[in-house]
Amino acid sequence: LENEEAVRKIASQVSDEILESLPPEVLSIEGAAICYYKDDVFIIGGWKNSDDIDKQYRKEAYRYCAERKRWMLLPPMPQPRCRATACHIRIPYRYLHGTQRYPMPQNLMWQKDRIRQMQEIHRHALNMRRVPSSQIE
Questions:
Q1: Least buried of 19, 41, 51, 133, by fewest C-beta within 10 Å?
Q2: Which keywords fit this entry according to its UniProt record (predicted)?
Q3: Under a CB-based contact definition with an 8 Å cutoff, are residues 55 and 13 in contact?
């Protein structure tokens, strides 16, 4: 950001629609990082319980999309984060590589298993048709 733009963003008031539309699960988070990129807001990590003994650190990240005017849950981070600092940086695509895999949602996992079962049944039926049956009884 240019210095003038950064000063303007810091001095500006947060829109009421952003604050009023905060999801309930975000309101109970403590120790989260907040990042402002263009007109979008990101809330990253934190913990759920304020009990010092059993803090549930979080992998979740939320984004307020100014274009759609709503909050979205982002894919989980590989490790939980709390009291982190967040900022926007540019990383050239050629340096982005890794094996990060996101967990498959339950409804898609069930659908994938069902499709696999149907394929196995179909293959079994085709094999049964191909096996020559004996002509002698």
A1: 133
A2: Kelch repeat
A3: no
How far apart CA 58 and CA 47 sit, in angstroms, is 6
**pLDDT score at 91:** 74
Give mean pLDDT, residues 61-69. Answer: 89
The pTM assigned to this predicted structure is 0.55
Report the candidate in 86, 90, 96 with the shortest Cα–Cα distance to residue 62: 86
The secondary structure of 20-79 as a DSSP string is HT--HHHHT-BS-EEEEETTEEEEE--BS---SSS--BB--EEEEETTTTEEEEPPPPSS
pLDDT tens across 3-60, in order?
677 677 666 666 777 878 888 888 888 888 888 888 888 888 888 766 666 677 888 8
Q: How far apart are the first and last CA of the chain?
A: 86
CA distances to 16, 42, 105 from 39, rounded to whole Å, are 14, 10, 29
How far apart (Å, rounded) are the C-alpha atoms in residues 47 and 56?
A: 5
Give, as one character, the DSSP assignment of residue 4. Answer: H
| 12-15: long-range contacts, CB 8 A cutoff, minimum separation 24 | none
CA distance 16 to 34: 17
